[in-house]
Hints:
With 252 residues, the chain is an alpha+beta fold. 54% of the residues lie in helices and 15% in strands. The protein has a 7-stranded mixed sheet with strand order 2-4-3-1-5-6-7. Strand 3 and strand 4 (178-184) form a beta hairpin.
Amino acid sequence: MFNWIALIQILIIVVLLWLFYRSFIQNTSSERLVRGLLGLALLWGGSFVLTWAHLDLLGTFLHWTALFLSISLIVVFQPELRKFMALMGNIDEWRHLFRRGGIENKDTKSLDAIVSAVEYMSAKHTGALIVFPSTLDESAIEKPGVAIDAIISSELLLTIFFNKTPLHDGAVIIEKNRIAYAGGILPLSKNNLNWKYGTRHRAALGLSEVSSATVLVVSEESGDISIAEKGKFTKYDDMKKLRAKLEKVMAK
């Protein structure tokens, strides 16, 4: 007799795993870890199936191959494993996964401050680079820069990106709706970009290619505001649309 309850439970587990993957793993530096674990699981499963089918030689070969790769994964993916285990124990991240869209009231001031600063820098042609990383993106950032850990304010962002300050050429990194670092160095994109894109845009695109981070760029030459995600730029001329986009980003 077909067990519908078992099928429903399996579907629920699959949906939960998919949500977890899409929210925290996809396009992060730990995505290759998950792919490695899936491949390893297939090897282990294959060894058991072959042994059950009395193909002992092949089963033993896969068994020892999977055992060797299991040890190798621990060594090769040590940073990703550490971050992954930290995420699994982070109650706040799980709460955000199932929370409705939108940011909390206490964070709307941070959002308003960012939008206000970006609008001002765009008008004054002040270059800026602001990163919104997920929990597992830190290893993709080459050097996070100088630790700030400050409440987000327009004045502080404008001070950091003022072209006479030593940190203005680097990226500001936003974590937990606070300015965590300033002067960060990001990996540069290796793609051939249009001549109008400078180092800031190349850095923004580069990080978005290897992580799930959202990177906001203000062009020093044109004043254009763009957001880099998943290796693509989107230009924002309307501040309302920009605010709506950043609200979704900060809600994560």
